[in-house]
Structure to design on (321 residues):
């Protein structure tokens, strides 16, 4: 069944640009409808800006002003056929003079219609549950941003607005999303403020040889189900002079330490090599000295001061020693 376009918003994404990994692609001009939806041409400039060699193994690349998504279109032998989540999302975070986030958000998340029509991508209603269900399941799954709205808002309104797309989301338990994951997002903004800019690639991690759990809406039973990743990774990269430095993390969705902050990201350090092994992705291959960067597991976070945090992250800043 074709997902309905919301009446309140005519800016729903209608199509995307696909990238072939085997050769330099020829990109079609983005239509007026695509421009209104927030999809931008996957030009070399956009790709290099958000993904300067951080992640490869391109499947379906979808470009936006604030990020790029490599969406998983690989069919499985079992049902559901498609996971409904990206392989990874990459974005460039620049220094902000202040905290630019507004409270403005779309009422309905966007999707990519040619993928949704084929049952490959979910729609906003895939994440929608009845109020009765929510009351019974207080720590249920949010549409968890991989490229955060408040960080994308440094690039302008549209960059932030179109982070609300299911190709930029995975199911995240609310306590995880609003706790340790938010702390790492706020710290990412602080690193960008202190060091000028950082790059981020994040995505789901599924346990090999274990059954996949699925999120199925009780309110919209015909909506495409979405696979629930038990873990998520995030890799943050910055330039220090001519050298690249990397912090990489692997977070479980649920852990006893999430009951109460402060949340220490150092607990969840994991080498990029191990993340590659767990996901099958090709990471950091475009960076100099990639093998050494992948093999190293960090021991300390990059230092930041409370003053480096945006005002919307005051609570997280207060947790910094």
């Amino acid at each position: 069944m074709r997902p309905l376009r919301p009446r309140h918003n005519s800016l729903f994404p209608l199509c995307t640009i696909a990238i072939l990994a085997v050769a330099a692609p020829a990109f079609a001009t983005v239509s007026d409808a695509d421009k209104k939806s927030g999809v931008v041409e996957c030009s070399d400039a956009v790709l290099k800006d958000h993904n300067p060699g951080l992640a490869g193994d391109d499947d379906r690349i979808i470009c936006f002003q604030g990020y790029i998504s490599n969406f998983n279109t690989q069919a499985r032998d079992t049902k559901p056929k498609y996971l409904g989540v990206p392989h990874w999302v990459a974005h460039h975070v620049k220094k902000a003079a202040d905290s630019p986030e507004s409270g403005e958000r779309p009422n309905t998340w966007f999707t990519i219609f040619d993928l949704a029509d084929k049952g490959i991508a979910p729609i906003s209603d895939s994440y929608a549950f009845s109020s009765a269900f929510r009351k019974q399941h207080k720590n249920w799954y949010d549409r968890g941003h991989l490229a955060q709205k408040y960080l994308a808002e440094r690039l302008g309104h549209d960059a932030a607005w179109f982070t609300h797309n299911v190709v930029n989301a995975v199911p995240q338990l609310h306590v995880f999303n609003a706790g340790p994951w938010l702390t790492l997002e706020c710290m990412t903004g602080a690193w960008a403020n202190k060091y000028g800019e950082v790059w981020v690639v994040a995505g789901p991690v599924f346990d090999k040889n274990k059954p996949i759990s699925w999120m199925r809406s009780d309110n919209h039973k015909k909506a495409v189900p979405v696979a629930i990743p038990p873990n998520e990774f995030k890799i943050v990269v910055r330039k220090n002079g001519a050298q690249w430095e990397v912090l990489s993390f692997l977070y479980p969705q649920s852990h006893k330490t999430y009951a109460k902050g402060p949340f220490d990201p150092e607990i969840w350090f994991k080498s990029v090599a191990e993340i590659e092994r767990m996901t099958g992705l090709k990471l950091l291959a475009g960076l100099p000295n990639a093998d050494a960067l992948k093999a190293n597991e960090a021991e300390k976070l990059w230092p930041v001061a409370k003053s480096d945090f945006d005002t919307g992250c005051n609570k997280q800043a207060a947790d910094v020693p």
